[in-house]
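Exercise: predict the fold of this chain.
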Amino acid sequence: MGAVQLADMESVAAVLAIHTLKARYFRCIDARDWASLRTLFTPDATLHFTEAQNAPLDLEASIAFIASGMEGSVSVHHGHMPEIEIDTPTTARGIWAMQDRLWWQPGGQSRLGLAALEGCGHYHEEYQRDDGIWRIRSLLLIRQWVNAVPIAAADQDSMQNRGIGQ
């Protein structure tokens, strides 16, 4: 085995920094920390959630969309098995497998008209490094599977038996 080249170490450091960036994204979403979430993106970032939007939105509209859709919910977001490619010292691309689960309290106000939502799919992202900090420049979420439970169809007893709404 040969010695690790400096360029290889820089790529490893970049990949680890992008892992941390995405972990912060999921934490900020679940904590409803919209101010911190905003700092994870470039100012010109676009976000596109294909199940709910026809086209990408700019950063401010996207954060408002996320906050409004999640209002009144408890959520858990996970990202798995990232495929990160460092294109240049300041640009990278990534694909993350994801799963999320959201629950609204019985009688709560869901703008989406849902009692629960669970989905799986992939985030496709582009990253940009400015002043040594990696940020998300573009986010596209494509869900392969969604289980949306409308309020009218929700079996509240079943949800309470799973610990939701207690």
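Check your answer against the key: The radius of gyration is 18 Å.
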